[in-house]
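Duplicate of #3305? Posting structure anyway:
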């Protein structure tokens, strides 16, 4: 129960039309959007983020544990939350028809997508709807089975129009679009994978993404221009040597290179995004200032940023920040990479478990990696990554790894001879058909054999 005194010290936006959009299986709702139309036609759009720091004070036991974890970990069959479930799924979660405390950025935006002003404040909200991405997408596509509420439909369609404008502006400024379909598994009651399917990002995903990006950028810019201590989310420029190789490769294969190959090459050249007190901008998003503010339930850097906002933007004198920001940034970056690896391992383990029931079957795929010891192939239907050992490829021929051209090249028609034919036998991005030969669940490894 939120006290009347706490509500009095906040901006009360419970009368604003508010909703959340999350995956169907989500339990922790840490962001919501509110939508109002002013008399002059401008839009008042609130980005409301769960006020975790109201419940978690710096240095208390929950805070220490959250700092140590630094992030929630999302495995295929379970979530390892950063915060106790009473907080992430109950007190802080922006569930519908419940009063909730938030840290908010409230924007005044023209219908042309131009941000005219913004206000950062602590708020109390009340969400009217808890939508899934599928429900929001149905409204955007104006399907007959969409939720029948004129106010909701107007809000979603208008916000989507603004999100499309914001996205176009980002792309025009040089932002990169590297999103992929997300692989998901259908599990039985024992947690065994019985099916694989993909979740393709749709307009509803982009709607939420654009307003979260706007809030993150706005907070970072306001803090940065005031010269305040801050934790930024930074992303450096790609490796120039790798970019040169990619440019040479694409020029040479401009008539045959596949979009898949271009994507794989680009991802390999990109630097990793990390946290730092030293701002260098975010190359991938094409932002001069960027931070993480919108997910304090599952990311500790966002918790720190909320405290910094309270001190430096809201001017709350009682807010004390004793943590070493750069040390925290480095710690959170390390924990994030560990979490990403754990999530990838979880997916690979589930893929190996699933494909173990398909030994001997053939699938279509794409060469996603070329090394001196063989080819990595990603299947179309399940995104299962596996390796084709070089010893099993084209018996009777000697293949050599050509690093600059991302291919295995024929050196001779017989082993032992040093006569180069110049033929590139297998190149990154090539379409191939493979047979599943072996699946080691413990090692998370899958072996394929090319089907000529």
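Output from current build:
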């Amino acid at each position: 129960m939120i006290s009347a005194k706490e509500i009095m010290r906040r901006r009360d936006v419970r009368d604003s039309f508010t909703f959340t959009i999350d995956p169907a299986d989500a339990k922790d709702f840490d962001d919501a959007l509110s939508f109002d139309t002013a008399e002059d036609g401008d839009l008042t759009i609130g980005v409301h983020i769960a006020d975790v720091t109201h419940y978690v004070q710096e240095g208390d036991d929950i805070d220490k544990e959250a700092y140590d974890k630094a992030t929630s970990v999302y495995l295929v069959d379970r979530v390892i939350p950063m915060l106790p479930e009473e907080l992430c799924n109950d007190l802080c979660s922006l569930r519908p028809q419940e009063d909730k405390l938030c840290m908010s950025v409230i924007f005044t935006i023209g219908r042309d997508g131009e941000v005219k002003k913004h206000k950062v404040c602590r708020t109390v909200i009340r969400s009217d709807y808890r939508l899934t991405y599928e429900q929001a997408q149905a409204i955007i596509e104006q399907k007959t089975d969409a939720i029948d509420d004129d106010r909701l439909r107007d809000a979603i369609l208008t916000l989507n129009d603004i999100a499309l404008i914001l996205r176009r502006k980002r792309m025009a400024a040089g932002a990169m679009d590297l999103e992929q379909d997300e692989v998901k598994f259908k599990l039985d009651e024992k947690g065994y994978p019985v099916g694989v399917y993909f979740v393709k990002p749709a307009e509803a995903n982009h709607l939420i993404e654009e307003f979260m990006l706007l809030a993150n950028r706005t907070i970072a810019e306001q803090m940065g221009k005031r010269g305040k201590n801050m934790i930024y989310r930074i992303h450096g420029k790609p490796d120039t040597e790798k970019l040169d190789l990619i440019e040479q490769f694409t020029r040479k294969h401009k008539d045959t290179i596949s979009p898949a190959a271009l994507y794989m090459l680009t991802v390999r050249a990109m630097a990793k995004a990390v946290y730092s007190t030293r701002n260098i901008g975010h190359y991938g998003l094409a932002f001069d200032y960027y931070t993480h503010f919108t997910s304090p339930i599952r990311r500790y850097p966002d918790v720190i940023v909320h405290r910094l906002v309270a001190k430096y933007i809201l001017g709350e004198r009682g807010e004390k920040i004793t943590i070493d920001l750069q040390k925290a940034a480095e710690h959170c970056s390390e924990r994030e990479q560990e979490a990403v690896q754990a999530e990838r391992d979880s997916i690979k383990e589930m893929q190996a478990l699933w494909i173990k029931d398909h030994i001997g079957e053939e699938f279509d795929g794409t060469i996603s990696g070329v090394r001196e010891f063989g080819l990595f192939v990603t299947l179309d239907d399940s995104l299962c990554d596996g390796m084709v050992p070089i010893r099993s490829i084209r018996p009777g021929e000697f293949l050599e790894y050509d690093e600059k051209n991302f291919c295995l090249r024929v050196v001779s028609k017989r082993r032992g001879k040093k006569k180069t034919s110049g033929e590139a036998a297998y190149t990154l991005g090539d379409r191939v058909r493979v047979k599943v030969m072996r699946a080691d669940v413990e090692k998370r490894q899958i072996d394929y054999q090319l089907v000529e």
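Confirmed duplicate; merging threads. The domain at 359-450 is CATH 2.40.50.140 (OB fold (Dihydrolipoamide Acetyltransferase, E2P)). The mean pLDDT is 92.
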